[in-house]
Amino acid sequence: MAAPEVRPRGARLPRSARRTQLLGAAREVFVAQGYHAAAMDEIAERAGVSKPVLYQHFPSKRDLYLALLEQHTDELVDATRGALASTTDNKQRVAATMEAFYAFIDSESESFRLVFESDFTNDPEVRDLLERMQRGCAEAIAEVIEEDTGLPATEAQLLAVGLTGISHVTARWWIQAGRPVPREAAAALVAHLSWRGIGGFPKAEGKAGQP
Amino acid sequence: MAAPEVRPRGARLPRSARRTQLLGAAREVFVAQGYHAAAMDEIAERAGVSKPVLYQHFPSKRDLYLALLEQHTDELVDATRGALASTTDNKQRVAATMEAFYAFIDSESESFRLVFESDFTNDPEVRDLLERMQRGCAEAIAEVIEEDTGLPATEAQLLAVGLTGISHVTARWWIQAGRPVPREAAAALVAHLSWRGIGGFPKAEGKAGQP
DNA sequence: CCGGACGGTTACCGGCGGGTAGGATCCCGA
DNA sequence: TCGGGATCCTACCCGCCGGTAACCGTCCGG
């Protein structure tokens, strides 16, 4: 691939600039290799720097990973909140949220892999961050559901989680299958599924369905 | 916890019995710790046996994990196929499939964690197994969708994946939240969501929704 | 009584990779 | 010109764990 392999060595950088650059290199490596297979040496090399420099900015591999992860989970929660607030028509809300979700997953950096394909979920803090993220997204959605349907909180939460599940799983499938349809089409189809259900699709002939 | 810690040492077993027992011990450890944190020593100890015995049955940690994983992915695909074949009414098909999915996840052994929370997805063969599993489930569902709606294969596949996504994500949430509602209720609610969509739930007052 | 197959054990190796000690360089203000 | 405080490097340590070599007891057929 023509990815920005190893950056030129030798250039000195002010502390904060170096830090963000290291985060970028770490993201690339963690996304490509996962937490366990990623080596600190490799992250350092990718950034054009030696390992101790990395440790001057982050106390441990784990902390580096957590910093990165938090950044991206926050991003998704914000995107979800934004999409929900963009309209008051619920059907459009669903569409907007799906679109936001697909946009998040479709980013060049593939950073969604950190969030949805983490291989460090054994760590309690990682679990906690991911759980928080899901709560953040689901509660925002559940609030709307609860308000508009009068369902009990638990049920609303379950439905909300279901909606995030649709987007999450279909979006990853869509990427992994090589984006077989345009992003907007996929998001729209999935939004339709979410809004009308699978029973809401037209029947071909006299097959079974609703009476 | 009162989990069956370490089994009594000293008993000799015929080869095949030992093998299945080792698989059981491995499942317990992998489920509790994940692939990376699990040590071969611990699996052996859990089975009341020494490490070389483990290696007389499985050539490597990776192979052991793969054997275990394949077993459980097959299980889920079969359950899905069974549920789809249990009726010809599509609405009931959805309900049955959800119920099957929830049953799979609600097993005592928590073996679903191997499948849905694997920390070894970096491995190509693991990826392949999981991908196969999703294809297996999704294609079975997509076949029905395609046949009944006349949608193109890709679209049907996307919808099918969406339905698996609902079950997968809600079921895990339901477990993680401490099973806040009975399993049948959760499965039924989620089946309703899948069939009618979020737009199919009753409105509380004069709020936005379908016109 | 004997040999060998089978199931099991202890004790060890080796490398990978996270983390660190100690020193070299360079910029900048006095 | 001369500290001194950044920034960065080479070189190393060491613990963990997957995997193995070599050996032991026991049962069974001849």
Plain-language structure description:
Two copies of one chain form a homodimer. By secondary structure, chain A is mostly helical. Chain A is built from nine helices and no strands. The first copy, chain A, has helices spanning 15-37, 40-46, 51-57, 61-85, 90-105, 112-116, 124-149, 153-176, 183-196. In chain A, α5 crosses α9 (183-196) and α7 crosses α8 (153-176). The first copy, chain A, is elongated, with a radius of gyration of 21 Å. At the A-B interface, α1, α5, α7, α8 and α9 of A face α1, α5, α7, α8 and α9 of B. Chain A binds a DNA duplex (30 and 30 nucleotides) through α3.
In brief:
The structure is a homodimer of 211-residue chains. Chain A has 9 helices and no strands.
Q: Mind sketching the topology for me?
A:
Two copies of one chain form a homodimer.
Chain A: H1 15-37, H2 40-46, H3 51-57, H4 61-85, H5 90-105, H6 112-116, H7 124-149, H8 153-176, H9 183-196
Chain A binds a DNA duplex (30 and 30 nucleotides) through residues 12-15, 18, 39-41, 49-53, 55-56, 60-61.
